[in-house]
Amino acid sequence: MAELKAEGVAAGGGPLRPRKSWTELLAGRVKKQKYNPEREQKLKESALHLLRQHQNMQDLLLEVEDPQCKKLCLSKLMEGDRPEATSERSSSLICFAFQDQASRLGVPVGILSAQVFAQSMQQVCVEPSHPLLLSPQQRKKLASSLEVAQHLLAHNMFSRLTFCQELWKAQNSLLLEAVWCLHRHGVVSLQELLQSHPDMEAMTTWLFRNLCCLCEQTEAPCPSPDITEAMLAGFVQLLISRAFQESLDPKRPVEAEKMPQVATVVLQRMLTFALDTLDADPQATPDYQAARGWFGVYSGHRCCGVTAVDSLKQFFSSTLTQILTYKPVLKVSDAMQMQKEWSFAKTQPLLTMLYCRVFVALGLEESVGCLQEVLELQEVNWRHVLSCVSTLVVCFPEAKQLVKDWVACLMARAFESYRLDCMVTAFLVVRQATLEGPFVFPSYTDWFKESFGSASGYHSCSKKTLVFLFKFLSDLVPWEPARYMQVHIFHPPLVPRKYHVLLTDYISLAKTRLADLKVSLENMGLYEDLSSAGDIAEPQSQAIQDVEKAIVVFEQTGKIPMPVMEASIFRRPYFLSHFLPTLLAPRVLPEVPDSRVAFIETLKRADKIPSSVYEAYRQACATAEQKQPEGAASGKRRDPDCANQPLGLLTAALEELRALMTDPTQYSVISAQVAVVSERLSAALGHSTSDGSLRRSKIQLSVLTPTLQRQDEAVVDLLLTAFCQNLMAASSFVSPERQSPWAALFVRTLCGHTLFPAVLTRLCQLLYHQGPSLSATHVLGLAALAVHLGEARSVLPEVNPGVHASAGSLCVPEFLSSLLTCRTRESLLFCLRFCTAAISYCLCKFSEHPCASLHKYLSPGLIKKFQFVMLRLFLEAREPCPTKCTAAHVPWRPLYLPSADWQSAALALWRWSSFQELLKENKFYQLTYKDWIQLELEIQPEADVLSDTERQDFHQWAIYEHYFPAPAASGGCGGDLELACTVLVSELMDFHQSSRSYEHSEHSDLVRGGRRGNEALLSRLQEMTVDLELDPGSSVPSGCSASQSHFLFRVFRSRLQALARADSMAARLQRQQELLLCKRLLLRLPPSVLVGNPQTRQPLSRSCEEFFDLVNSELKNFCCHGSVLTHDVTIHFFRGLLNVCFRSQDPALVANLILKECQTECPLILTSALLWWSSLQPLLCGWWRKCYQSTLPQELQRLQEAREFASNLLSASASSAPSPAWVSAAALHFATREVSEENIKTHLRRLDCEGEELLISFLFFSLMGLLSSYLMQGDTAEYLKAVDICGEVLVCLERRKVSWLMLFQLTETDAGLGHLLRLAPEQHTRLLPVAFYSLLSHFNQDATRKEEAFLRVAVDMYLKLVQLVVDGETRIASPQASKSLKLQGPSLLQGGPVQLVTEARIFLLQLIPQCSKHCFSNMTELLAGREDCDPEVSNALLQRQQAGPSFDLYQEPRLF
Hints:
Oligomer: single chain
Number of helices: 68
Structural class: mainly alpha
Number of strands: 2
Radius of gyration: 44 Å
Strand content: under 5%
Largest sheet: 2 strands, parallel
């Protein structure tokens, strides 16, 4: 190889000579020595060892004498600069070179290539620029080398084991990304690489160190975040899969099983390191970043690569166990004293996040089970255990019951086996859970009373359990906080009298301890707050809290709260000395009595306030009222100089600040001048700066009626005016981004004073009530102020604006955005000006990060309102913005000029490329279809900036051109017309149920309290519904399953299900309002929605079935006429029926099929048709004859025949009743309502010839009519007439010996009459006992004694009647009888429900002795669980049941 000129100087300084090749050297050695096989083998081993230690790939290739390889250089292949570096030919040459050299050396080619590439890896990682990551150049070199290694692997010419062993020799210089690249490119997997390390301890240390660094990099700015994320996920998945593998193969060598131990150790060390870091309470240190990164490992996406679910669960279970047992140094006594500091709010957020992720992964039941197991078997860190309990009950409401069950199990085991450890655990867990407040877990007082305050408590088994309990409580006394001892004293365990000494000894001990702590028993308030910061509050402050809470409870219930009643009896010293003086503090009484006045008067009527104390309070209030005008008058007569001096000084300070704005050289003294302003402001307000207001959770405001005191208003106006003037002065010299931080300092001054609620109130007055009248200067200044308030949002309290906000409390930016209304022309234009100014100022002030500033300082609602107004007012905004926008800068400067052009500025901002990019990139700020509907509903058409035609065009464009084709991810409908209709319906209903529809409610279109502004959107909904019906893709194809429900009924169903059925009047009224809204919206849509389009061999469509479900479950309870729907719903359904018939091939068949289905599925439709037949018949007959020139279908004729039958029966004409009998009975019932009362008996005597089923059904409808009259509270004559009708039917049934009692025991499964229950509203069904005992005067004396079932039904109805009265179901006032009407018997309803119960009770007590013995069978089962309703009646029944045969011989008393 003369070309390479491998010349050199000899060691001894001899002449230069060419270097001999390796082959020549070997050949020479062979010639000089005799052949020896052993020596040859030893020589090969030595050569192989030499190559392993000093191998160089480039020198090796130089030794290859093939002409094609002489010019090949591996370093160039590794650099990858030449295209042939990745070619198949180059890789083949590399393989050929390795094969040739390996054959010459007698070494396996895989070992040779592995050693060479290990050396290449080491060279790549030399001089790293990052502790973990490769530089771009290093990454490029490594990629070229990996391609060659992959080629060698593909040809079985690479030894992974040898490569791993050689690689670990230089592990200190090995970069983690290089290892990851080997794994990712399939050269050597992570598991194989780690398994091959010769020293497991060293490998564990290396892996732990690199994982810590990797976690730190994931939380810090990193050049390649995707690589670090993938590396961390890969290592975590490997460690979890190896540490928690299912089972080990016994045939595998022991060395191969070191990896699970290493993986377990590394995972434990990483978690211990993270917990140690949290214990050190770091402040943004690298260790904290690493701990944060490791906690991120427990998120699902980083563990999702673990295929075995069991391994993942074992990992999370091991994690929870390690956390709970981490450094168990705290004792139980420490936990008792310190657990208040371990609540959820005071726990490290990273730790609570870790708890939540573990709970989600394991499931709540398994998590609680793990807690139990660890507490039973190991020493624990009580801080972690109790913070874990707090996180469990706060973040997972469903875990409350699991914790309760766990505590109950601990208590049961403690008292069964007298185990103190179970008692300690139970008390600690309960106290920790109660620290999170009553909305999370019941109070400690309630739990203690429930556990020990009754005879069924845990301690009530024996004397030994009592001793055990009080011994435990006594042991707690030296350690537990005073609050718990107060609970134990005021709510002591229930103890038998003979063991009362145990209780008195404990109370004495606890009182002594409280005295040592200098805590009075009376200091415990009526409403305990064990989660408060202080242990025991001062008596006066505690009394203030008690009074406020008591007034709130009184407002909600209208009754004296139970804690107040108890305190007035059992804690009179606290009640008289603290509570009453605080409640009766003198003040000027309001003209309209407020809740406090009402509460005081209620206490006075209950004799809870002594007369002398009450009179003193009234006298003090009168004195305060007399002094108020004097003080006001004297204030007006004060010296103007004295009165205005503080304001004058504040004004001077503000003027000096304004002067500094115009001089850039004075910017350094602005902060000092702002401090002067703050001091003068404190003097003007008469109090010092305090951040107490900022520590409050919320600021309560009334947006609709904001009021300010005169002094506060003057100060706030001065400050706001100064801010606006300062902004204009500063902007006239420099743009906002170059100004000093004066605005932020000024806003901080406002926020640091107790004046801040007054500032928000004044902003409410200006923006919400006076916005359109504000000048340009005010608009610009207030918009900039809103931006800087958003900048300080983290230190500002939330705002509760009253009925104005449907979402409760709001942060300050959201509150300010809510003040911008879009109802009228003036408010729309003002909203445009304010939003343009605020967005422009924000983008200009924080121009370095414009998108981030909008996200931080402005609410999404403000940006969405800007989009809404732009799209509504400007046609240019509806067109796509040009790709290259001409606006290069934010349009701020033209706004503060005298001739500000708001329209041009708004359009310039809209067309600004950065703003449009923000809207596209950040979905959070896009005006979605739902947002657009919400804002459009606010518009008042009579004051709209758009005409009716323009508004219609805008709606058409917005729905069909803008939102309908837009993808759902961008807030559109994705071409789904049904989705567009669903969202529109939901928002319409939400709007009318929200407080937004409270104002301007003179006109209603959908619901009472709504506005006429919905007419246009309702028209769009009608159009879209028709389009949906005509859309061939929206209907169910013929022959397919019609499982897809109609969007309208889906919305109704979901909303009604969300309103759970409740017993409270408010809940029932809310549900009725929602149902009324559903009904009116249903009537505004095409009637075909109700019936749908029946398919072949399917009589009912899915829409029709859903309408029937709505009728049976909801609408029937909305009826005021009993067993019928309202007229409008009935007419609407039959219009839909005609519509479907006209579109079918066989109209008569379709009509008959649907109406036959109504008989079984929705009979209320048919009874409604009978009631409204007079207005329905012309519609049906006219349309049918007009279209088909034929008679009505058979089922419609049945309805007509039923009406004719009823008319004939009442007019003495003979005709047979058509089937089904209940339809004829319903027609007869409606016909009798039109007959005069004096003729009813005569007409009803003709019922003797009719069938039994018709009579029973007629009695059912008559009972429904009776209950409807009772509920309507209308004319008493109607009610009495209904009673007479029922009585006559009873007489007729008794004459024919037909039992009618089954009507009061109906179930839907009854074959004969079960369908009648579908005709009865739920309230009518519940009130059947009222109907039963309203007919007492019509019961036949002999029949009641002889019929075996009568007594059972009478008792059942009586017990239900008593329960109705107790539950308040009969609180609806009954009609009072007219004085001119003379009843044949006593009026049972004359005295109300109580009188009815009294009469029923007397009736039963007289009836019981007269009934025979067999009438009392199964009476015990009937009374089961209801004996307490009326003990006397129950006792009489049971005694009669147990009496001997002689009891059957009775004397017949006169009952009637």
